[in-house]
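An instance noted here:
***
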Amino acid sequence: MKLFIPLLLFLLSFNSSKDYLFLKTNSKGQYAYVDSKGKTVIPFGKYNMCFTDTFKKYAIVLKPKIGFVAIDRHEKVLYTIFPFDNGPDYTSEGLFRILKDGKIGYVDSASFAIKIQPRYGCAFPFKNGVAKVSDDCKTIPDKEHTVWISNKWFYINKAGIRVKN
């Protein structure tokens, strides 16, 4: 037992919150990220909004003039996140959508790794293991929203392989 407690404390030290940054807001409604000691690492007001409350390796923020982006701990932009309903795309079946050069792809929400490179003109969230996508589509206004129109929809699985029409 005497050996077990020091070993347990040693192992727990690798998973401590000292590796995390925590979201903080001020009286002006600005966001910052601070370390476990309260030291500001990313200053208030740098990002208009922050969507990740506990920042270990990656965070989702609203970057001025760019939009919703995933950043790493060095604040390098990894990719732009597809905007949905006035916020970043939501996770569906472990994936969310990203944008690059006007094309849509998918990212694993746990690892932030790109699972399907952006290559679709229109792409819906995954449902029952598949996503409805199109390479040839148009976006048209519909009151306060937009809709996608295509005659060439097909479905892909989570590996990006076409599975059915």
Remarks:
- Residues 1-15 have pLDDT under 50 and may be disordered.
